[in-house]
Amino acid sequence: MASKAEIAALKDEVYEACVPIAKDNPRIVLRQADILDLDIIPNGNLQTLLDVAQSLLNEKLFKVVHDSDGMGWKLRTVDEAKKYRALSVEQEAVYSLIDEAGDEGIWSKTIKAKTNLHDSTFTSCIKHLSSKSMISEMKSVEHPTRKMYIKSSLSPSDRATGGPWYTDGELDEEFINAAMTVLFNYISTRTFYRSKSALREAQRSPKKVVRKMSPEQVKEAKALRNEGLGPRGVEAGQVDERTAKRMKYESMLPMPAGYQGYPGLDELTLFVEDSKAFSQILTANDIQTLLDIMCFDDRIEKVIAGAEGVSYKALRKSLLDEDQRSSVLTEAPCGRCPVFDLCEEGGPVGPSNCEYFADWLSM
Q1: Cα 138 to Cα 91: distance, rounded to the nearest angstrom
Q2: What is the CATH number of the domain that holds 145?
Q3: A single GO CC term, please (predicted)?
Q4: 238: phi then psi, degrees, rounded to nearest 5
Q5: What pTM was estimated for this model as a whole?
Q6: No. of H helices and E strands in the chain?
Q7: 98, 87 in Cβ contact below 8 A?
Q8: Alpha-carbon span 313 to 180, nearest angstrom
Q9: Contact 312, 269 (CB under 8 A)
């Protein structure tokens, strides 16, 4: 039987041999056969192995793990072992659960259930661990009302924090919209080209219509129409914002059939990295999430093209604002006309003298 001095020497030797193994794979669980394979235990004596393992457990350098393959050990660092040795039994029970939870954190109610500690004892343990900067509270976007704890040396996972889409536990819609706008603008530049001839056609002034109304009738009809539809888009050579967007829309034409220059996920990810438009780092998975959202919103669509095989192209209707996308009925002035019931030939308002109808036909 090995002496205490021999056990102490073997303990140090086994621990030093296990450090590089755990460094290469922090999740590794060491088994009895793994320790014997180190060829440190004399003659592979099982009793000596158990004594060495118990000594490592006593000094908190090993911790026992039970899984589907049976019992094993995980390695702790020397600094972490010192922290454990300074704790009471109750404090160690609480801290070990928080330690095992990793960057996901653990709910206080779960700790109480597993340790079966009284509320006052549990609170005392949490206060002690917090005062030693060993643990800290964390917020989880999945469970915003729960009191969660995590090791102070760890940062919460993306699952807990919500990744780049959350700021201080709140969904950052402004950042999400800004990121999608940057991506959409880039995709649009690779999807459409500006036609100068189409732009000139869109800027062409509408033909004048001979009006058969009295000045009073014209004034009354204009007031009613302006109230419902807004002032005319083109008057005296001036173009309002809505008309300008429509003119831009008319001038942007899609790339021809067989075009292979649509951007894929890798190109878009590289573009975001190089543009440095955001303080947060967006991974390829983050970019894919935004692309999926824009596909669901009918702003872009997947196409089989380009070097990556799957690329993205912008949909032409997405160049318009939401209120400008309309059906056949709402696109025509008649569908939104506040004096539709008065519209008839010979009346104060009619198709032949409707200035909005004339503007719409000339677009």
Answers
A1: 19
A2: 1.10.10.10
A3: nucleoplasm
A4: -95, 145
A5: 0.54
A6: 16, 13
A7: no
A8: 14
A9: no
184 with 247, same domain: the answer is: yes
Any idea what the CATH number is for the domain that residue 46 is in? 1.10.10
Q: Is 1:47 a contact under the CB 8 Å cutoff?
A: yes
Structural domain boundaries enclosing 328: 175-356
Over its length of 363 residues, how does the chain's per-residue pLDDT go in tens digits? 678 888 888 888 888 989 888 888 888 888 888 888 888 888 888 888 888 889 998 988 888 888 888 888 888 888 888 989 888 999 989 999 998 888 888 999 999 999 998 999 999 999 999 998 899 998 888 788 889 999 988 888 877 777 778 877 778 888 889 899 999 999 988 888 877 665 555 555 444 444 455 677 667 766 766 665 555 544 444 556 666 666 666 777 778 878 888 999 999 999 988 887 777 788 898 899 999 999 998 889 998 887 788 999 988 776 655 555 555 555 677 766 777 777 888 777 887 878 777 777 765
What are the tokens at 112?
A: 């109480």
